[in-house]
Amino acid sequence: MDMCLAFRLAILLTPMISLATSSDDVGFIYNGFRSANLSLDGIAQFTSNGLLKLTNATHQQQGHAFYPHLVNFMNSTKGSVSSFSTNFVFAITSEYPTISGHGIAFVISPTMGLPGALPSQYLGLFNDTDNGNRRNHVVAVELDTIQSREFGDINNNHVGIDINGLRSIASTPAGYYEDGSRQLRNLSMISGKRIQVWVEYHGLEKRMDVTLAPFKVSKPKSPLLSTHLDISSIVNDEMYVGFSSSTGSIFSSHYVLGWSFKMNGEAQELTLSQLPKLPRLGPKKRSRLLTVGLPLILVSMILVAVSGVVCFLRRKMKFAEVVEDWELEYGPRRFKFKDLYIATKGFQDKELLGAGGFGRVYRGVLPTSKLEVAVKRVSHESRQGMKEFVAEIVSMGGLHHRNLVQVLGYCRRKGELLLVYDYMPNGSLDNYLYDQPKVTLNWVQRFRIIKGVASGLFYLHEEWEQVVIHRDVKASNVLLDDELNGRLGDFGLARLYDHGTEPQTTHVVGSLGYMAPEHTRTGKATPCTDVFAFGAFLLEVACGRRPISQSPTEDFILVDWVFSYWCKGDIVEAKDPNLGSDYVTEEVELVLKLGLICSHSEPEARPSMRHVVQILEGDIPFPEISSLGLCSSGLTFTHREGFHDFGMSYTSSTDKRFSHSSAAASQFSGSR
Ligand SMILES: Nc1ncnc2c1ncn2[C@@H]1O[C@H](COP(=O)(O)OP(=O)(O)OP(=O)(O)O)[C@@H](O)[C@H]1O
Ligand SMILES: *[C@@H]1O[C@H](CO)[C@@H](O)[C@H](O)[C@H]1NC(C)=O
Ligand SMILES: *[C@@H]1O[C@H](CO)[C@@H](O)[C@H](O)[C@H]1NC(C)=O
Ligand SMILES: *[C@@H]1O[C@H](CO)[C@@H](O)[C@H](O)[C@H]1NC(C)=O
Ligand SMILES: *[C@@H]1O[C@H](CO)[C@@H](O)[C@H](O)[C@H]1NC(C)=O
Ligand SMILES: *[C@@H]1O[C@H](CO)[C@@H](O)[C@H](O)[C@H]1NC(C)=O
Ligand SMILES: [Mg+2]
Predict the structure, then answer these.
(1) pLDDT band for position 186 (cuts 50, 70, 90)
(2) Which positions, given as ranges, span the membrane (predicted)?
């Protein structure tokens, strides 16, 4: 019981498994030589990973490794040599690919180690005096890699069977017969590749077989070398078994990776997967790794680093912004360009809402708040006036009115300003008015929009803490929210350009047909110029036509056109035909007439937005205006001379600004 346990422990603790099927029949297996107890001499050694390294890269040396116990070769019953078999894996590495040091031999010897033997061509087996001596009692299977003509070697890559001397009794070039083929496949033993060897002695038939195969090719059925041989007169009853190897003038190393041996039976098969790994191949390979691999690795590392830096810089450039000290106080009004970029999916064309005089407008969804916004990209080269303008935009963030498009904030980049507004799902009003729109608005909707825009503009002019002049009132700047409320957008934006890029040219900004004549003359925007534009807007909405349209035949001026209807005494005829019959005559008339008086060329003659709101709400009656006589004298509106002569008076002129309304006004007092 105790012995059994100890035996099992031995099996578990060492990779070397010694087995004895009967008391005499020695058998062992080494799947690698880690902690193996072989007897080494010469320069043989075990490597740390369990290789048996018979020689290391040295000149004129030999190495031996022997199983440390005697092996009984005599069949006690019959008095003849028993059968035995052995299987091992070896590899020879050399400093040159085509020549190497000498080979390796499997030896059966009366002594452990081979005292007096020489290296080089003697393979560590014999010396020049005892070579061939019958008293040697040595049987060896040589795997010779050098052709020694003195011993009659057939070539420099052969397998031979040696009895007491190096002149082989049988030899053949190294190779193997693939199963099912009589074709010999060569095997180079100095390739550094692992090669399996089987040596079998058949005691009854007195035959020795030697078989080679590349690593991981199973044992071929036909041996490479098979020769009739009676070794009973050569071997003693008890012998040692092991390996011998030698180097000559070329650096080479001989390795044995695994070994099994069995007396009276078939040697156990090696477990190839458990065998230790060979060291990475010789200096040649290593230098290749250094000369080709290292630079390659370095270059690719540099490439990766450079492309990383380029990526980083490009990303940084892509999202670069301009932030100056004075902006810091605007913190929450300042948007990150990256956020806007993400919101608008990289300013994709798909998200483009439209383009106007200042730049393109994109729809977007802010990444964190998921708020829908409209982002306007205004290209702006000059930094002049930027500070004031940004201050104004930021302060306009404080404007809250149901008829204004809320300004959410801004972002600044080199040569570019981005403004962020609330998104208006129904787009701008101009889309519903001219050029056979897909959807038109009925009168109730239009009148509500007009009143809304009027109250929004009134808020800008008078109801907020400071006077804000819109400067660009027009149908395309009136946006419709989800309830079709009219909301004024883009207020104050024209200012950015008013501050002027080139001081020498007074840059007047506004849209054709909406610019008050005095605005064009002086370049100065006032609440009165906004009222003028609002007048043009009223006519636009009621008539469904642009304030000015140019055709090859003639220029159409909406104010003149409406005025001509007024003169004919039927101003309502000027209404948009798309309205059909579903409208309130009084309201249409009111809007058209209000549009006309707002378009008065004399700023003093225009009502204020406060009045406009009051008139539209019906809180005060429409001012009495006399048009008789004017019409007969063929006067026209706006830009034409003589328009000043047209006058009007307001029945309730409570507003201070109305008291301005010119001397001319009295001329035309009285009702129609
Ligand atoms: N806040 C918004 N929500 C939804 N759509 C908008 C918004 N702002 C602008 N748009 C759309 O973008 C288009 C272009 O606007 P933009 O203000 O650039 O040009 P514009 O109003 O025609 O001219 P201007 O440059 O004189 O204002 C508008 O016609 C409108 O359809
Ligand atoms: C070879 O082995 C011997 C003995 O183990 C050692 O002294 C020698 O330095 C080794 N040479 C090389 C090149 O590894
Ligand atoms: C190894 O073998 C030697 C020689 O036979 C022997 O003296 C020694 O005890 C053995 N050691 C082990 C650990 O087996
Ligand atoms: C050795 O003897 C045994 C019986 O002890 C026998 O079975 C076997 O075949 C013999 N082997 C040889 C090679 O003579
Ligand atoms: C040759 O080897 C034998 C042992 O095998 C030894 O006795 C003899 O001295 C050696 N001869 C020389 C010249 O080394
Ligand atoms: C094998 O080796 C022999 C002799 O060295 C040579 O003649 C033959 O061409 C080789 N065959 C192959 C397939 O390399
Ligand atoms: Mg606009």
Answers:
(1) very high
(2) 289-313
